[in-house]
Amino acid sequence: MSQRLAPPRRGPCALRGAILAVAMLLLPLPAGATLPRAASVPGGVALLPLGPATGTAAPPRAWFGEQPVLVARRDGEWVAVVGLALDTPPGRHELLVQPPPAVVAASPAGEGAAAASTRVAFNVGAKEYPAQRITLKDSSKVDLSAADLARAESEIAEIRRLQRHWRAADDTDLEFIVPAEGRMTGRFGLRRYFNGEARSPHAGFDIAAARGSPVRANAHGIVLASGDYFFNGRTVFVDHGNGLLSVYCHLDRVDVQAGDAVVKGQRLGLVGMSGRATGPHLHWGVVLNGALVDPQLFLAARGNRR
Ligand code: ZN
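A: This is the predicted complex of the input protein with zinc ion.
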């Protein structure tokens, strides 16, 4: 990890931290006040300072590969909050950064000119996630029939398209609550073997809970889609804005529909075991700039100890 990827500072002094803690109990969190914990590894989030944020100036825009990146204001500075997919190769990577439109307009090159953009280099470290072995009695969800394979593949393409969704917003909440009460049973990143066969790694966070327990929005947003998928079962996608999405899978029932605005803590549906699941649980995925990242990085420290 490079030096610029220091963990986020919570405030200049302990007193301010205490005042903030009290204020957070009374008021909605101001946008961008709290960033996820930095973890510049596959499946993590890199925090990259992009320069001072002054007055009402618009943020710089940034891209990681083809994907636009969330840029948040923290302590008078713009910070790119970059999601790193589990298959990101460790090593040196670059963010493409373009100054805000007002700055670009003042430059003779004009908006969109290559000369206006800069590259910010950062390092992604290696991370070895533990293995998890799962036995499924119903082997049809491990060794798929031709029809199921075709269905699953078309669904995966649709899910990837949803994960790349971008909606600009100025109120994205980056500090999540845990979306279901229960026991954490599957950490993010586990290298999984179903009935002894290697399958894709676990790109979410599992919470075991009784069937019918409420599943709540971990932050406010707009329901992007819901569907019933071969692997994920009944699923809701919530768009928090700026490429940050949450995905809730294996639901027993869905209580919202595409286009609904939801507030933090609002019930989205009920815990179930639809799709490929060994028991009732919520599989919670978090997507940032198209990459599935560790949801625990967005939880306050107390949530992280669950
Ligand atoms: Zn899961």
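The helical segments are 14-26, 101-106, 146-163, 301-304. Confidence is low (pLDDT under 50) at residues 1-31, 110-115.
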